[in-house]
Amino acid sequence: MYRNKLLIFLLILLIACFFIINVSATEDPIKIGSIFPLTGTCAKPGTGCGYALELAFDEINENGGVFGRPLKLIIEDDEGQPTTSVNAAEKLCVQDQVVVVIGPFNSSCCLAHKQVTEREKCPQVVPVAFASAITRPFNNPYMFRNILNAKTIGTLFAEFILRESSAKKLVILRENTDYGLDFEKFISERVEEETGVDIISIEVYNPGDTDFYTQLTKIKNLKPDVVVMVANIAESSQIMKQSVDLGLDIPFYATGSSATQQFIDLAGDAGNGLYSLSFTEVHPEDPPIKTEFIKKYAERFGVSSDMFSIATYDAAYIVAEGLKNLYKNNNEEWPENIAEFRAKLRDGIAEIDNLQLCQGKIVWNKYQESATDVYFIQWQDGKKVIIERLKAEDCVVPGEEKL
Questions:
Q1: pLDDT tens across 310-319, in order?
Q2: Which residue, among 86, 61, 10, 27, has the nearest Cα to 316 in the 3D structure?
Q3: pTM of the model
Q4: Residue 347: CA atoms inside 13 Å, Cβ hemisphere, count?
Q5: For the chain, what is the mean pLDDT?
Q6: Strand ranges (DSSP E) for 255-359?
Q7: Is residue 125 pLDDT above 50, yes or no?
Q8: Best CA proximity match to 46, nearest among 72, 85, 83
Q9: Mode of pairing for the β-strands spanning 374-380 and 275-278
Q10: 293: Cβ–Cβ under 8 A, 6 or more apart, which residues?
């Protein structure tokens, strides 16, 4: 008798488990789109951003997804090319019916495809692209950015250069993109406010160029006190090597990509002495989520994370938090159609306030941008040395505080 009851109990338990497993297996995943350069000149940092998303969404899904629903990442390679990026956004928003887009890496790509995400009323979280026109003026409520904009960064960077170098004559060497043009504009504006300090030349090159001897020879003859370089990794590392070839004994100050391990791996000894802007470095005040991410990323992918992968990891958790807010605000139900889902997810992301992530706490300003810590580093003997750190709360321009 006892054995029969036990067999019946086990049979019922087996049927119940089978039912639960099948319900879980048939639960529709929430599709998350992403656009990054997995090939082309920005492939290394772009691939790192893809790794960060993979890690984040695996963590979220291993912990039950968002209120029981798994998240499915669909990542598109835009090759760092605006036209390709537009096609990627069209595919994700129209064909794949994703509820949100994370990315891209390049400002020119974002400016090209943001008309697609705006037209489709699809929320977008931008963790890397700097160009001010992505979020300014504020005319697209579906666009969010968890990184500082070019105006704020350019101004802070110019002030650091002036403090650190006491330079009177500066040259800007930049790529011929929206990213390069934005930084030229805002760095120049701040420098020109200083009496007796001048930008004596602006030298331009195209992304993908490998020969910079013409520009560097001209710079050498101009004899500036400082060269300000606005460049991505492939070009900045070559520029530093060729400047050594020409015997340029001039301090170089560079924007963010030059603060990555990939840069110094490519530049070698030629990178030593370079000052660079950075948005994340290992620091005693780092929150646990950041130290855990750095450790997990290195163990899983066998390479070090950088500021771009960390910002992208944060973007994934911004999306997850927005989904949680959506579900709670919608009477603990998921919207039935894509248009409603996107609109309510947009509201859920906008509702985020003081969420602690790797780069700091997410607090949206009136442009739906969140400030981050800013670091200024110098490469010394192949290692980064932090020269100065600005906390996120000190990187908010007056009048741009929290909404």
A1: 999 999 999 9
A2: 61
A3: 0.85
A4: 11
A5: 91
A6: 275-278, 353-357
A7: yes
A8: 85
A9: antiparallel
A10: 52, 55, 305, 310, 313, 358
